[in-house]
Amino acid sequence: MQRLMKKLVGLLTVSSICLLPVILSEIRAQQTATPPSTAAPSPVITIEELKSRRMAIESMTDIDATVKTESLKYIDQAIAYSEGTDSTNKKATELSQLIRTAPDRMKILQAELKKSFMVPEKIAERAQQMSTLKLEQKLHQKEAELATAQTRLREWNGRLTAEKAIINQTPEQLDNATSRLKDIQTELESISDAAETDIRNHSKALSLESERAKLAAEIKLNEQRQGSHNLLVELFSTELDVARCRPEKGGKPRKNV
Predict the structure, then answer these.
(1) Which terminus of the chain has a smaller tally of CB atoms within 10 A, N or C?
(2) Number of neighbouring beta carbons within 10 Å of residue 212
């Protein structure tokens, strides 16, 4: 009984400092709120249409083998670029939502950091009023909550590290994307008169147009991230401060993928 009480007092002391079930539920609710519409313009040709075109080309028998191979390569590139555009647009929507809710979440977290903590003597007094069974149940509950706190600490540390790394790469990525867009425009102009019956050049044009859409989406995302970098760093740092109330055990945090 005494051993259980001592262990529980320790866990309750820590959890009174770093576990924020009510606050975290509010944050999660904000994170899952429906964002305003930020839908990207409809593509010139959809992924499904590209796949159908690929099947049509693949089934052709009255076409030069080299032309067929190159055309399929361009269509495959177009599909990959289009999938990349969809993925980037999704990230941009999620980032917009995060930026929109950041100020309110910052207020919640900063207010929580200012709260006073329950003193160990008060926690011990509460523990003494519990039965052995209640102590064991409370102990298991707090152990699970503290494990969650450790995971949260690793996640926020990873996000903060990743944000700082990404922003250093953004200027170069923007320059490269802008330069490539100019090259794509030149290439498209050189084959602008290609008819749909010109399988190879028409497929190449689809690849270039899909790449252009992907680059445009990436530029928009990077500019959005660049403009909100300080806000994101402040937010992630504050989230990390809250999570850091529970010190990590057993090595370094996992890196975000």
Answers:
(1) C
(2) 19
Can you give the three-state secondary structure of 11-31, one letter per residue? HHHHHHHHCCHHHHHHHHHHH
pLDDT tens digits along 242-257: 877 544 333 333 343 3
Q: Give the rounded distance of the alpha carbon of 87 from its chain centre.
A: 11
CA-CA-CA-CA torsion for 33, 34, 38, 40, nearest 10 degrees? 120
Q: How far is CA 98 from the centre of its chain?
A: 10
Residue of 15 and 220 predicted with greater confidence: 220
Looking at residue 176, its pLDDT comes to 95
Cα(15)–Cα(143) distance, rounded to whole angstroms? 9
Residues whose CB falls within 8 Å of the CB of residue 217, separated by 6 or more in sequence, listed in order: 40, 84, 85, 88, 89, 92
| Boundaries of every domain in the chain | 2-243
Query: What b/e string do you get for 175-203 counting C-beta neighbours within 10 Å, with b at 16 or more?
Result: eebeeeeeebeebeeeeeebeeeebbbbb
Give yes or no for a contact between 16 and 122, defined as CB atoms under 8 angstroms apart: no
